[in-house]
């Protein structure tokens, strides 16, 4: 078992870690949480990586493969449980122990402790009411980004004024410390490099727009994970695609998405929306959303009724939902279900539609084909969309065909940004975005309490086991091996498709901090993505796939039988020995991160969870669900699953969100 160096690091509410000596050679603090959204513990990135590469890190692990039993043995100066990691809910920013609303000025830096000569990325946003902001040494602007190379301790500060010349509060100041301890230089250089690269990726824009799906490929293709749509495909399996139905990307030509839920009765109950939860949106800013689409004449027409099958919804953080409804012959506007305004219009040709939400209001206007006069106006209602996700805190964009209404449409593009800009208005550059915080490294002389899980002593469904099983018809692929190891072999003739689950993870709250840690060896004959661990709670779903040559994080349960949808890979040999995989998802965040073999540098970062939570599996909105074994989406052909063969030491969990300790 690895023991920590005897240097006690105690976290304050702002995550500034204070070193307390308990030996003659105390290690310096390698991490300090920042004011604003800054101070995340960033990971390494090779120097040739581009912003689009951010999310998958090179293999920097040199662990010998032995089980790392974090927190099971007391370190020499055991300080008890790790300090709490303060995080804010959707739409708010952590600043000096307070969670600020999005219309307040925020200043963010990529790191608050760096190696000498490191580059520090800086991003600022004055909020909805700022006229301009001053962040030295860059030109004044309401929002912006920059980078500074520093060799000495440096403080970055920000002041903003509104249109009346009044100073806005707060006025952030973020100190950045230059650490010279040689022992920490490799780690600091790694996280500093990633910090800059993450900021570059998150500051991407699409011209005057903040987020865009241009119709090419899937809504997760060709963009950093931070800009992926977390419901990029809806209700389809590989068999549907093999039959030429479902989401038809690049149809009728490259740059268009066509979905037909009307022609085949097997598709009548399926949804056809793409959707995206967006932590940066807020009703105080207003919203401008534009899309170009053609609605087919049969869309939503059945039983003699026009069901307005194609819909666009903006679910705001305050519970209000705006709705635009397109039938083949009309445009309607209102809330989620009942339109309150309508106008006759032929939507079967391609038209460009722009929705403009008034700042701080539920009122919105609809413009067509760049005409400067709205074709109609509407008001949202406080009825939530019915969907498989109960994360109603994050604003959400939904566009396409709602389930059971048999939509049939072709979408050219959809794009949006903060601010209210009707056609013909002057549109400034988009507001900046910066990364959500990564989990901080576990402070030395503290421990994470992992709760007993699947520990190699009991099989699923054994008396006393917290793990249940299904799809476990004989012959069973589960077997107890000496030394507290469980083997799962789905390959013939040993077994068949096997899945185990924990329907309510003990001591873990939905939307809360969560760490899933597993020590597993993949066998050489295991098929690609034959073994998976799936985490679902009220924030959505994220999946860890293990193959002989890689570990991957995936966009939850979204279909991967047709093509890769929102997957990030960490190439590695998983068959040589047992490896330790730590999946961490901080509270109220949309992103998960993967650490391997107790390396404090995560191999995969910013993996977006999908916008679903497996209907019917969660017994209450406050629980989290864990599934492992076989996930049915990876298939070599329709109905032909890819099978796994692994040995498992343990799979366990903790209601915390820390990376491994960075103290050498």
Give your account of this protein's structure.
The protein is mostly beta strands and 664 residues long. It has three domains: 7-202, Immunoglobulin-like (Sandwich), CATH 2.60.40.10; 211-418, Sandwich (Jelly Rolls), CATH 2.60.120; 451-654, Exo-inulinase, domain 1 (Jelly Rolls, Sandwich). The chain contains two helices and 45 strands. Strands 13, 14, 15, 17, 24, 25, 26 and 28 form an eight-stranded antiparallel beta sheet that branches.
Radius of gyration: 25 Å
Which architecture of the largest domain does the CATH hierarchy give at level 2? Sandwich
Which descriptor suits the 3D outline?
Answer: flat
Overall structural domain count: 3
Distance between the termini: 15 Å
Characterize the largest beta sheet: strand count, sense, and whether it forms a barrel: 8 strands, antiparallel
Tell me the number of strands: 45
What portion of residues is helical?
under 10%
Strand content: 25-35%
Name of the CATH class of the largest domain: Mainly Beta
User: What is the fold named in CATH at topology level of the largest domain?
Assistant: Jelly Rolls
Low-confidence stretches: 1-79
């Amino acid at each position: 078992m690895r023991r920590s160096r005897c240097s006690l690091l105690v976290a304050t509410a702002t995550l500034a870690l204070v070193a307390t000596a308990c030996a003659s050679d105390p290690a310096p603090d390698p991490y300090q949480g920042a004011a604003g959204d800054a101070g995340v513990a960033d990971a390494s990135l090779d120097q040739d990586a581009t912003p689009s590469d951010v999310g998958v890190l090179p293999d920097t692990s040199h662990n010998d493969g032995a089980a790392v039993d974090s927190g099971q043995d007391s370190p020499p100066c055991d300080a008890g449980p790790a300090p709490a990691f303060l995080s804010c809910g959707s739409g708010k920013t952590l600043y000096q122990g307070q969670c600020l609303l999005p219309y307040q000025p925020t200043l963010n830096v990529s790191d608050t402790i760096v190696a000498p000569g490191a580059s520090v990325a800086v991003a600022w946003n004055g909020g909805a009411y700022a006229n301009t902001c001053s962040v030295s040494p860059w030109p004044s602007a309401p929002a912006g980004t920059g980078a500074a190379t520093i060799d000495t301790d440096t403080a970055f500060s920000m002041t903003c004024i509104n249109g009346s010349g009044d100073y806005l509060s707060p006025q952030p100041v973020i100190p950045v410390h230059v650490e010279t301890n040689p022992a920490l230089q490799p780690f600091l250089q790694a996280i500093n490099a990633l910090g800059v690269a993450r900021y570059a990726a998150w500051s991407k824009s699409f011209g005057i727009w903040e987020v865009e799906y241009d119709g090419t490929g899937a809504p997760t293709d060709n963009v950093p994970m931070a800009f992926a749509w977390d419901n990029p495909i809806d209700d389809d399996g590989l068999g549907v695609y093999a039959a030429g139905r479902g989401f038809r990307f690049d149809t009728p030509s490259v740059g268009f998405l066509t979905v037909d839920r009307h022609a085949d009765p097997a598709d009548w109950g399926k949804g056809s929306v793409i959707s995206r939860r967006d932590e940066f949106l807020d009703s105080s800013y207003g919203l401008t959303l534009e899309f170009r689409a053609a609605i087919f004449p049969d869309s939503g027409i059945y039983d003699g009724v026009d069901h307005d099958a194609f819909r666009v919804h903006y679910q705001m953080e305050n519970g209000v939902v705006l709705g635009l409804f397109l039938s083949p012959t009309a445009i309607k506007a209102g809330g989620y279900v009942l339109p309150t305004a309508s106008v006759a219009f032929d939507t079967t040709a391609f038209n460009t539609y722009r929705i403009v939400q008034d700042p701080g209001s539920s009122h919105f206007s609809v413009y067509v084909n760049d005409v400067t006069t709205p074709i109609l106006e509407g008001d949202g209602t406080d009825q939530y969309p019915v969907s498989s996700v109960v994360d109603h805190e994050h604003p959400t964009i939904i566009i396409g065909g709602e389930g059971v209404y048999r939509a049939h449409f072709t979408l050219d593009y959809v794009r949006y940004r903060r601010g209210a800009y009707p056609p013909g208005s002057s549109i400034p550059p988009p507001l900046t975005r910066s990364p959500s915080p990564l989990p901080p490294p576990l402070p030395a002389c503290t421990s994470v309490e992992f709760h007993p899980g699947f520990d190699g002593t009991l099989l699923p469904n054994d008396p006393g086991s917290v793990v249940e099983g299904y799809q476990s018809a004989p012959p069973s692929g589960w077997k107890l091996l000496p030394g507290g190891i469980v083997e799962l072999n789905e390959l013939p003739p040993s077994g068949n498709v096997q899945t185990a689950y924990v329907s309510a993870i003990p001591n873990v709250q939905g939307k809360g901090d969560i760490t899933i840690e597993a020590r597993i060896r993949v066998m050489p004959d295991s098929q690609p993505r034959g073994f998976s661990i799936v985490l679902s709670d009220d924030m959505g779903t994220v999946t860890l796939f293990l193959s002989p040559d890689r570990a991957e994080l995936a966009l939850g349960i979204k279909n991967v039988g047709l093509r890769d949808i929102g997957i990030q890979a960490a190439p590695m040999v998983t068959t040589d020995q047992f490896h330790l995989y730590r999946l961490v998802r901080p509270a109220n965040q949309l992103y998960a991160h993967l650490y391997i073999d107790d390396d404090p540098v995560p191999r995969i970062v910013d993996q977006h969870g999908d916008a679903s939570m497996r209907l019917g599996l969660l017994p209450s909105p406050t629980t989290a669900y864990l599934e492992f074994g076989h996930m049915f989406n990876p298939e070599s052909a329709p109905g032909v699953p890819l099978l796994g063969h692994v040995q498992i030491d343990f799979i366990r969990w903790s209601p915390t969100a820390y990376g491994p300790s960075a103290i050498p």
